[in-house]
Amino acid sequence: MIEEKKISMAVIRRLPRYFRYLSDLIKLDIKRISSKELSERMQITASQIRQDLNCFGGFGQQGYGYNVEYLYEEISKILGTDKRFSCIILGAGNMGNALANYENFKKRGYDILAIFDVSEDKIGKKINGIEVYSTDKLAEFVANNKVDIAILTVPNKKIIEAATEVTSLGIKGIWNFTPSDLSLGEGIVVENVHLSDSLMVLGYRLREKGE
Amino acid sequence: MIEEKKISMAVIRRLPRYFRYLSDLIKLDIKRISSKELSERMQITASQIRQDLNCFGGFGQQGYGYNVEYLYEEISKILGTDKRFSCIILGAGNMGNALANYENFKKRGYDILAIFDVSEDKIGKKINGIEVYSTDKLAEFVANNKVDIAILTVPNKKIIEAATEVTSLGIKGIWNFTPSDLSLGEGIVVENVHLSDSLMVLGYRLREKGE
DNA sequence: TAGATTGTTAATCGATTAACAATC
DNA sequence: TAGATTGTTAATCGATTAACAATC
Fold this sequence. Notes:
The structure is a homodimer. Chain A is of the alpha/beta class. Helix content of chain A is 45%, strand content 19%. Chain A is globular and about 65 Å long.
């Protein structure tokens, strides 16, 4: 068994940022970049960039820097942009609707297969070509389709119910737009969005600055 | 001049979480709680809770713990939930629409005054009772209304333009839903949401777990 | 080769956790 | 008072930054 150093969440959360900046560099037709140049663009230290990248491999070349295209490809691989994930949305409210209409996710490998809701006037309709099913059909749907990720956009009173069902159906990933923290145990990966938290932090920082 | 210890972003980002948990405790009619009990609920250490709270003041009582109602009020004050912020939304697309329809923000003190878009068939319409104006009217609107926060949900090609205008109009807070990082300098507070980043991190963690 | 820049080790910094005296 | 639990200082841990030998 190979001894692998655990990669910290701090590093992982920076990966999509590297991915974006490299993608921009490609658009700008920049072929090579040093950690120093990249550090100026990204407003982080060159040291941190080199440390981060070396968690995954030596992608650069001494005296030269990094080949932008190559580094982009490597980070793409790390982030798994070649892989596809099947998603379902629980809750066809405002946020569920907005997410169903986001074309970017499909481009990144995340396909939305179906939407589930309890409201009679939504069931049977389509949102951006994706059918809205009754929540009653969720178990059946998951039994017949491989579902990797449940996107939770249900209202507050339905959160626990929805999270419990999703877990019991064996779905391993939850993209959580509800205000709850959903500690669902080991096997489940939860990525929280917590919009209200973000807004409150903005408010705090604004007032702090103003003082 | 009073020497104030700088409060770290790590602590600040936990504040809304304390706020939520305390709000839940009130709903459960729990009157007092020790850092130990709260730590079990929140899955963080009691030490961290006491350290965090003591950045702002001694809200507890030795031998007793914390009075839930009182602590909730104090954290509310720190987060400024009594204050009101005036917001505008730039971009009446899917996300702009969803945010305009979120009733929660108003409840937390964030009022959405207006929405701006370039598309002729949206201008003049209302979303959740909030008028959609032409982007041409933005400067005029900001001159006549105190605007604290601009919520950026514009498409990629409009990001720099929108951010530049918002900054030049003197708006001090940006809630950024675009994929860009917007380094706009000192005076501006930017809070990023970066949904795609979040989704990619979820994908990474899922694949990592699966291996 | 000389210059540049990485990969990597060591030093520093900051955040988390532990410990315990203060005190309700 | 005795027990409990805070507020706070000290210890630890992890993440960031600096330094530099390796090497292109």
